Amino acid sequence: MAKGKENIVRVQVTNTGQYLITLPRALAGALELNKGDEVLWIHHREGLILRRSKGGDAL
């Protein structure tokens, strides 16, 4: 697999303590996420849980 810029997951922390996560298109597509979707990532003892609202509403 190519290691180009398009394969990088970028994580930024805002000044309010929120995380801004940028995913590669292939991964976002596999998770059925669209540009600008707001989701909640929950760290659980069994893994990472992705929770999103129905209809694209903000969480």
**Side-by-side strand order of the widest sheet:** 1-2
Shape: globular
Number of domains: 1
From the alpha carbons, calculate the radius of gyration and give it in angstroms. Answer: 13 Å
The average pLDDT value, as a whole number, equals 79
Helix proportion range: 10-25%
Major β-sheet profile:
2 strands, antiparallel
Poorly predicted spans: none
Any idea of the CATH topology?
A: Pemi-like Protein 1, Chain: D
Cα separation of the termini: 34 Å
Number of helical stretches of at least 4 residues? 1
CATH architecture: Ribbon
Structural class designation: mainly beta
How do the SSEs run, as a string of H and E?
EEHEE
Strand content: 25-35%
CATH class categorisation: Mainly Beta
Protein described:
It is a single chain. It is built from 1 helix and 4 strands. About 10% of the residues lie in helices and about 35% in strands. The radius of gyration is 13 Å and the shape is globular. The relative contact order is 0.15. The strands form 2 sheets. The chain has a two-stranded antiparallel ribbon with strand order 1-2. A two-stranded antiparallel sheet has the order 3-4. The protein is mainly β. It has a single domain (about 5-55), classed as Pemi-like Protein 1, Chain: D (Ribbon). It has one helix at about 25-30, and strands spanning about 10-15, 20, 40-45, 45-50.
Main features:
59 residues, mainly beta, Pemi-like Protein 1, Chain: D, two-stranded antiparallel ribbon, 4 strands
